[in-house]
Amino acid sequence: MTYPDSITKEELSNLPLCGFEGKVVVVDNQYQITEALEHLQRHDFIGFDSETKPSFKKGVINDVSLIQLSTHNTCYLFRLNMTGLTDELRALIENDHITKIGLSLKDDIRGLRRLTDLKPRGFIDLQEKVADYGIDDRSLKKIAGIVLNKRISKKQRLTNWESEILTEAQQRYAATDAWICLEIYKELISTEEYEQLR
């Protein structure tokens, strides 16, 4: 299957809006971390993203507030500003037997390395993957439009990810960003398999 190399803002705006509709679990204590990772480790592929509290002061960079890890129907939001980056979570990030699919991963990894020395393994960056299909657009919103014919909202991106309680809108936004990476990858892989069988 071939995809267009880009999509216009107008074309994107005409696509149906989609978002993660599965179970969202906010993880903010050690017991929840252990439980969440036990579930995630049973999957070969998971969606990945991170969020950082925006800084509106020049030269000020905040630490990563949130890591999102999603299966097809459950997304875990790890609140690093409350738990820190635990050894268990670090082990998953460094586990090359579990494939983590994200977008623009250099930024995410750079942020995590400010917290601790990490050796990330098993990551696939969709920006690199879609290039193999002739797709030039690099934003998650546009890649979702091209590959899935769906539109995602980015309205919550600059909200406070260190709020005492994450709103329902924040939770859904964060979950969608990780989940949609997994969905895009699955679509590309199924397309590859289809092409090989022709």
Number of strands: 6
Going across the biggest sheet, name each strand in turn. Answer: 1-4-3-2-5-6
CATH architecture: 2-Layer Sandwich
The percent range for strand residues is 15-25%
**Low-pLDDT residue spans:** none
Shape designation: globular
Enter the CATH topology name: Nucleotidyltransferase, domain 5
Number of helices: 8
Mean pLDDT: 93
Report the top-level CATH class: Alpha Beta
- Quickly count the domains: 1
Compute the CA-based radius of gyration: 17 Å
Q: What this model shows, in words?
A:
With 198 residues, this protein is α/β, with parallel strands linked by helices. It has one domain: Ribonuclease H-like superfamily/Ribonuclease H (Nucleotidyltransferase, domain 5, 2-Layer Sandwich). The chain has helices at residues 9-13, 30-40, 80-83, 87-93, 105-113, 126-131, 140-148, 168-197, and strands at 23-27, 45-52, 64-70, 74-79, 99-102, 123-125. The chain has a 6-stranded mixed beta sheet with strand order 1-4-3-2-5-6, sandwiched between helices. The longest helix is centred in the C-terminal third of the chain and has 30 residues, at 168-197. The radius of gyration is 17 Å and the shape is globular.
